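Subject: Bifunctional protein FolD 1, mitochondrial isoform X1

B.,
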Amino acid sequence: MRGRLVPILAALQPIWLRRCFQTTSTLRSFSNQIIKSPSLLSLDLADSWSSTSKQSDSSPIQENTNNWTAKIIDGKAIAEGIRSRIASEVSRMKELIGQVPGLAVILVGQRRDSETYVRNKTIASEEVGFKFKMIVFPENCTECEVCNALCRFNEDPSIHGILVQLPLPQLEQHLDEAKILNVISLEKDVDGFHPLNIGNLAMQGMEPLFVPCTPKGCIELLLQSGVEIMGKKAVVIGRSNIVGLPTSLLLQRHHATVTVLHAFTKNPEKIAREADILVSAAGVPNLVRGSWVKPGAVIVDVGTNPIEDRRSEHGYRLIGDVCFKEATRIASAITPVPGGVGPMTVAMLLCNTLESAKHAFNFT
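Prediction pasted inline below.
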């Protein structure tokens, strides 16, 4: 009797749960199972910065002695060039095989910055000729609802890229981010957050299917601006799975010497001031003051922090982690907010989705 019940019970499992088991089996086929040893693991503490996070080293600002201001790295202009090339490739694909890339986005809740990101992705996708689908869930939705929607996109042959807009709401910790991201098919993980993608990014001699979009955009900004990375001291502020961690891994791949600062780092100001390349992804408005910046450093400001502004169409505006006015008097180059990393993140998402579609259609 028990033997006959097993296939019946398996069939009754939600599709996303079966997907999780399939993913686990796949992972085990690639490597031995890792047994976690509590004695080797530290507490998983939140990397929560504040505007006063350990700023004990208040050194005076060292401005450059010449009368110049930092070069503004125009991410919007660079991204427009990339998007133009993508649009041309999509037109060629449509003409030759009658197909176009498809991108699906899931948004949970009403975070202002997340809504801004999704709005920009929607506009950009339509401009380059992608098929675009979006599902918006309320903040109190269930994990099962999100996972089932992801599985429908996994099975949809017209969709080549799937992303869940992060971070997810943490209402009573009801949504397990890792579990949700694991449901996305590896070949459609254009955000690059699947554990196999991140793991391959960290390992020498391995290549991820997709590199996370914001870190990829940061590196592309540096390269297209002629900034030398090899051999330079790079400091990354923040260690999130979305930006900080993969950015530090990418910088290492480009042979920089990388230091990562987090909310428990002592004297972060002093360490940041040693950076030739300073990447801030802490999510705190104006955390990085002029005294944190080495004269001549290149600054990549990933922070997109919404602050109330009644004059704005949406009732708020975005500012970065870096005090722009102070930093431009010291750095050699800096990305603005908005108009720096944000447009590049969207451009890299389009690049990844195009590559996924090319692979699916065997199109070159």
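The domain at 208-341 is CATH 3.40.50.720 (Rossmann fold).

T.
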